[in-house]
């Protein structure tokens, strides 16, 4: 994520609160605001899968993270380990 967004993981999200994501991201450019929660990140892995399967998992994770879209910008990252390849999608903020 730092290479794509200048954001890095700062803490795990609270589980069971209905937010639907794994990590809070913070800025790496300004150490004074590193620990401000700038964005959300949901991650998922697939051992081996086709493009349609990867896209299906992305869509599932976008739906999962959507209840917290008003909180902060968000990202979904799906990694397919067989090839390997990754798809990272920015969520729509509502």
Describe the structure.
- This protein has helices spanning 2-5, 51-65, and strands at residues 7-12, 23-27, 39-46, 74-80, 85-90.
- Strands 1-2-3-4-5 form a five-stranded mixed sheet.
- It has one domain: Trna Endonuclease, Chain: A, domain 1 (3-Layer(aba) Sandwich), CATH 3.40.1350.
- It has 94 residues and is α+β, with helices and mostly antiparallel strands.
- The chain is built from two helices and five strands, in the order H-E-E-E-H-E-E.
- Helices cover 20% and strands 34% of the residues.
- The longest helix has 15 residues, at 51-65.
Give a quick precis of the structure.
This protein is an alpha+beta fold and 94 residues long. It has a single domain (2-90), classed as Trna Endonuclease, Chain: A, domain 1 (3-Layer(aba) Sandwich), CATH 3.40.1350. It contains two helices and five strands; from the N terminus they run H-E-E-E-H-E-E.
Keywords for this structure?
20% helix; 5-stranded mixed sheet; 5 strands; 2 helices; 94 residues; Trna Endonuclease, Chain: A, domain 1; alpha+beta
Secondary structure topology:
Blueprint: H1 2-5, E1 7-12, E2 23-27, E3 39-46, H2 51-65, E4 74-80, E5 85-90
Parallel strand pairs: 3-4
Antiparallel strand pairs: 1-2, 2-3, 4-5
How many strand units? 5
Number of domain modules: 1
Architecture in CATH?
A: 3-Layer(aba) Sandwich
Would you list the SSEs in sequence order as H and E? Answer: HEEEHEE
Low-confidence stretches: none
Tell me the name of the CATH class. Alpha Beta
Straight-line distance between termini: 22 Å
Q: Please state the CA-atom Rg, rounded to the nearest Å.
A: 13 Å
**Could you say what the CATH topology is called?**
Trna Endonuclease, Chain: A, domain 1
Number of helices: 2
Class by SSE composition: alpha+beta
Instruction: Tell me the overall shape.
Output: globular
Q: Name the strands of the widest sheet in spatial order.
A: 1-2-3-4-5
Q: What number is the mean pLDDT?
A: 88
Strand content: 25-35%
Q: Percent range for helical residues?
A: 10-25%
Mind summarizing the main beta sheet? 5 strands, mixed
